[in-house]
Design goal:
The chain is about 70% helix and about 0% strand. By secondary structure, it is an all-alpha fold. The longest helix is centred in the middle third of the chain and has 33 residues, at about 235-270. Pfam families: EccD (PF19053). It comes from Mycobacterium tuberculosis.
Length: about 400
């Protein structure tokens, strides 16, 4: 017993407070203080156009940047402290940049702040070069990029929230389909190049050499990148590093679009309106496509992010319908609770059956065709709901 309690020279049962624990606690306290400063800055900025709120947030953000630089130069191995100072500084500087321009806070101010967040996140990702940090940076850039596009549209046109939400839903589906391509581009992984379909480039020779001559490749020739005989095949370590980077970028993009999906579904749905059924159809098709797209990703975090985002969107839609109905036990509680419980039971059944079942090719082909049909039906439904057909007609 004394061994487990730390006596008789044994180890400790409970982890003690170390310097690492103290540093992380200090970062948590700094984050609390930053939260208070942000809340007061935004509150004051909504009241007055004074530059004091922006100067206050920017000054504290500069101090945090100095702290991050000190950690980077003095304790480069402490990536945790650098990330903590860096993210807090990015948030403060973004709020300061958004509050600096005069006038009532609007889409233009939000666009400035979001651009600062994107630039700061990319800087942190490039500086740290850690797998999960890359995933977080990608998620932040994805979410802020979508919000920045919405803010840019609102700067010039008074587009309704439903139309913006419809465009966001379509854009999310496009991003999901482009996730592998974007990840390969970020990781600088080029697709394989086959110079000749007949394979004649496998026996290439230099200009001026006889046709029947075979010359060995020397080490000097192998180091020449312009030489067509040089082996440019990536080594195992480089391939593994590229695979980790691609996976991190894909995880970040899947998490980012999954975070935006519930808000977009909330904006599309309009209960008790003339086109409420069409909005419900668009939202339902999008959620279904998100769930089916999850099967196209081999890594668990990517598929889980998409499924969880779709489930959160379903819960958001049920909640919006429940809050919009007249106050009552049956419409405001009973039917929404039954629907959510049935959806959860269906998810549990799928989780128990699908991984342990080997489906026939005809079933897989049927699912793929249903996915294609859902995509075909989604685009005209979204266009009709957004008023595109009416705009073209008039």
């Amino acid at each position: 017993m004394g061994k487990w309690l730390g006596r008789d020279g044994g180890g400790r049962m409970f982890a003690p407070v170390t310097s690492l624990t103290a540093a992380h606690t200090a970062m948590a306290i700094i984050a609390m203080a930053v939260g208070v400063v942000l809340a007061l800055t935004l509150r004051t900025r909504t009241i007055t156009d004074s530059p004091v709120p922006a100067a206050m947030a920017g000054g504290i953000g500069v101090l945090l940047v100095i702290g991050a630089l000190v950690v980077w130069w003095g304790w480069r191995e402490r990536r945790d402290l650098f990330s903590g100072f860096g993210w807090l500084a990015v948030v403060l500087l973004a709020v300061a940049a958004a509050c600096a321009p005069p006038g009532a806070l609007g889409a233009a101010h939000a666009l400035i702040g979001l651009v600062v967040v994107v630039l700061g996140a990319i800087t942190i990702g490039v500086a740290t070069r850690k797998r999960w940090q890359t995933a977080v940076v990608t998620a932040v850039v994805t979410v802020c990029g979508i919000l920045a596009a919405v803010a840019a549209v609102r700067m010039f046109r008074p587009v309704s929230m439903q139309v913006l939400a419809i465009c966001v839903l379509v854009g999310l589906l496009v991003l999901i389909r482009m996730t592998p391509t974007v990840a390969l581009w970020v990781a600088r992984v080029r697709p394989p190049h086959f110079g000749s379909i007949t394979g004649r480039d496998l026996f290439a020779r230099r200009a001026g050499m006889p046709v029947d001559t075979v010359a060995p490749v020397s080490e000097a020739d192998a180091d020449d990148e312009d030489n067509e005989l040089t082996d440019i095949t990536a080594r195992g370590t480089a391939i593994a590093a590229s695979a980790r980077l691609v996976n991190a970028v894909q995880v970040g993009m899947c998490v980012g679009v999954s975070l935006v999906l519930p808000a977009a579904v909330w904006g599309v749905l309009t209960p008790r309106q003339p086109w409420a059924w069409l909005a419900l159809l668009v939202a339902g098709l999008t959620v279904g496509l998100f769930i089916t797209q999850g099967r196209g990703f081999a890594a668990k975090y990517q598929a889980v992010a998409l499924v969880c985002g779709a489930s959160a969107a379903v819960c958001a839609g049920v909640l919006k319908y429940a809050l919009d109905t007249p106050k009552g036990v049956q419409t405001g509680l009973l039917w929404p609770a039954i629907f959510v419980a049935a959806f959860a039971a269906l998810g549990l059944a799928v989780a128990l059956v699908v991984p342990a079942t080997r489906f026939r090719p005809i079933i897989r082909l049927t699912v793929e065709w249903l996915e294609v049909l859902a995509m075909i039906a989604l685009l005209p439904a979204a266009a009709a709901l957004g008023g595109l057909f009416a705009w073209l007609r008039h």
